[in-house]
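Can't paste images in this forum, so I'm doing it all in text. The chain is below; anyone willing to post the predicted structure tokens underneath?
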Amino acid sequence: MISARPGDNRSVDVAVPPVASLQAIQLPIRDKLEDVSRAMAEIVASDLPLVGQVSAHLLAMRGKLFRPTLLLLSSEVEGTPKKQAVTVAAALELIHLATLVHDDAVDHSALRRGMPTVNALFSHQISVIMGDFLYSTALTHLVKLGDLEALQALTRASTEMTLGEMRQLAVTDPLRFTEREYYALIQSKTASLMRTACELGALSGARRYCDALGAFGQNLGMAFQIADDLLDYRATLCQRDRERRRHRIGSRDSGREWRVRVRPRAGRGVCGAGA
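Text version of the structure:
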């Protein structure tokens, strides 16, 4: 409970709900998430050695399966999930993985989640082609399911994400980027796929909640990207602050460089500490 005192001696008690970890949220579908991981490996399996090497690397660096989690939990809303939900979730995550591979290629990123990116470990050309392979293979498996609605939803989201990337690349002056343009960008790049994840889950077991779950995914995706951007922004400010301090200390004593570890004050929240 939090006690607030807006007046002389009045107090307001506010119940703060506990924050559940992602592991706790995933607990009801943990077995199905393991099935999703196995399905992903089966979908990208290939006799071509190079494809096998790149696929193994990508599957090793996959994230926390957040989008499949949204899909599977959405499919459980009415307690009647369809068996195909696992395959659809695997296709969804592979498409998400394809966007990351392409993003890293466009940005020439060397690391993702602490591991070398495909373009850093192999080559820029391989990363582009591998991203295409993930897209096409995922969609091929949806075609095999015969689920036209799922196919339409994922291709729509893929188109939105591609347009979002083009919108971002077209920005020449970030300081002139308006709030409306920013919302349009994160809607395309992030929220569209989270919305689709929830919609696909609804189509796999809770059809009458499709619109409501889609709206939830949309809002969650927007909030997710805003929070992620704020973390990046604060990390950038923190890095710049460290560099300025190093520069000032290094210039004091005949060019000698002093390396210091900057420890932000608790409660300031500038670099994520005490926030």
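The two ends are 19 Å apart (CA to CA). The first strand starts at residue 2 and ends at 4.
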